[in-house]
Amino acid sequence: MAKDKTLYSCSECGASSPRWLGKCPGCGAWNTLIETVPDAGPGKNRLSGAGQYAGLAQAQSVMPLAAIEATEVARTPSGIEELDRVLGGGVVEGGVVLIGGDPGIGKSTLLLQAMDALQRVGLPTLYVTGEESGAQVALRSRRLGLEASQVNVLAEIQLEKILATIEATQPAVAVIDSIQTIYSDQLTSAPGSVAQVRECAAHLTRLAKATGIAVVLVGHVTKEGALAGPRVLEHMVDTVLYFEGDTHSSFRLVRAIKNRFGAVNEIGVFAMTERGLKGVANPSAIFLSQHSEPVPGSCVLVTLEGTRPLLVEIQALVDGGGPSPRRLSVGLERDRLAMLLAVLHRHAGVACADQDVFVNAVGGVRISEPAADLAVMLSITSSLRGRALPKGFIAFGEVGLAGEVRPAPRGQERLKEAAKLGFTVAVVPKANAPKKPIPGLEIHAVERVDEAMAAVRGLG
């Protein structure tokens, strides 16, 4: 069977060329020609006609939303509670999940554990590996303590053979590890190229939607930490998960960046052990330092990750700087730190213009929500003055440039989580103050930054 001819089309203007060129002949843009498969003919597409994708091309009649029958998607728990939390409750039939992360962070380990757990509850599974041999996967399963595992393993990188195997074995869940190693015979470019990744992911996505097989794709990341390959890969799939955390630390975070079947920005917390990744039931314990007595420069924040309130310790160190003081932050935005220092000076009279300021979120967690503002400012003031905040103290709230303290979303849940973990004093925005007192928690509601500073001084 003759191999299909390929064209190179420009991603900017759509012009095509029979061979690759550095400069597009149509618009003059550089490095925009991408290998593609030409159309089969006028009015036809290479994926239409008789075959496994024909059912997806059927014309549907126009119907109002109210007349369309909609049922909740069925979910199958993966056997790993923290992974189910990130997925929105479990594996969805026909869903496509893309999971990315740094090399060696635990992607293959977690998926092998999940496949084994699904197989043990009676679901047929298939683990396709393009990076290892079957013997290497078997050795890893024995290291993880997965004795007598019945997970089917296929060591293959050709897309057509993988699709044929999936059609023949009909697994409930198939893992492709990784999508950058798979290639299609329809294209001549190397595995991992933009054209190959896009084409292979499109075929696997159509297979999942047509047959109801859940497909999990493992994706490589670039030096900057983004998923390698075309951005269309993330648009194509239903769920995008990112592994976060330092490979030198024993803790890993799995964050949902996109989820059509659940909450976005939900996180799962895992501990890396000799027997693989284990879910952490109380993740707040990771992000809190164990001080026998309160120390200056430390303030506990209640942050919200998806639907889960987490207690994270914010540490600040203010030290005498030179003519050009440094502002460094780990886990928080550096530009926001500079803005908060300006607000602190203008509206609370706390000057740090000639001081080095270092801010750190304990445990390697990244905090992007503005509700951390008040805790950052209180920790900086505590370090500058050398006075520790009271024991059992928490704070949260967004701070504006005018010095106002704005409410944080779902403040009641944050306060209840803090009270449950034994915290006794809280400084929060006035709009987040509960109507009914929370047992064991003394709440100070403030509207401005200077009020918050005065409230803290009164506690000391």
UniProtKB/TrEMBL annotation:
Region (Lon-protease-like): 356-460
InterPro entries, per database record: AAA+_ATPase, DNA_repair_RadA, P-loop_NTPase, RecA_ATP-bd, Ribosomal_Su5_D2-typ_SF, Ribsml_uS5_D2-typ_fold_subgr, Rubredoxin_2
Short sequence motif named RadA KNRFG motif, residue ranges: 258-262
Record flagged with keyword DNA repair: yes
Gene3D superfamilies, per the entry: 3.30.230.10, P-loop containing nucleotide triphosphate hydrolases
Binding residues for ATP: 101-108
GO cellular component term, pick one: cytosol
GO biological process: recombinational repair
GO molecular-function terms, A-Z: ATP binding; ATP-dependent DNA damage sensor activity; damaged DNA binding; hydrolase activity; zinc ion binding
Record's keyword terms, sorted: ATP-binding, DNA damage, DNA repair, DNA-binding, Hydrolase, Metal-binding, Nucleotide-binding, Stress response, Zinc, Zinc-finger
Pfam families: AAA_25 (PF13481), Zn_ribbon_LapB (PF18073)
Protein function: Can catalyze the hydrolysis of ATP in the presence of single-stranded DNA, the ATP-dependent uptake of single-stranded DNA by duplex DNA, and the ATP-dependent hybridization of homologous single-stranded DNAs. It interacts with LexA causing its activation and leading to its autocatalytic cleavage. DNA-dependent ATPase involved in processing of recombination intermediates, plays a role in repairing DNA breaks. Stimulates the branch migration of RecA-mediated strand transfer reactions, allowing the 3' invading strand to extend heteroduplex DNA faster. Binds ssDNA in the presence of ADP but not other nucleotides, has ATPase activity that is stimulated by ssDNA and various branched DNA structures, but inhibited by SSB. Does not have RecA's homology-searching function.
NCBIfam families listed in its UniProt record: sms
Domain-related comment: The middle region has homology to RecA with ATPase motifs including the RadA KNRFG motif, while the C-terminus is homologous to Lon protease.
Full protein name: DNA repair protein RadA
Originating organism: Alicycliphilus denitrificans (strain DSM 14773 / CIP 107495 / K601)
Gene (UniProt): radA
